[in-house]
Amino acid sequence: MAISSHERFTPMAPDAPPRAAPAPPPTRSEREASIGDLIGDIGTDLSQLVRDEIELAKAEIKEESTKAGKAAGMLAGAGYAGHLVLLFGSLTVVAALSHVMDVVWAALIVTAVWAVVGAVLYTTGRKRLRTVNLSTEHTVEALKEDTRWARHPRS
Question: To the nearest whole percent, how much of the chain has pLDDT over 70?
Answer without folding.
Answer: 77
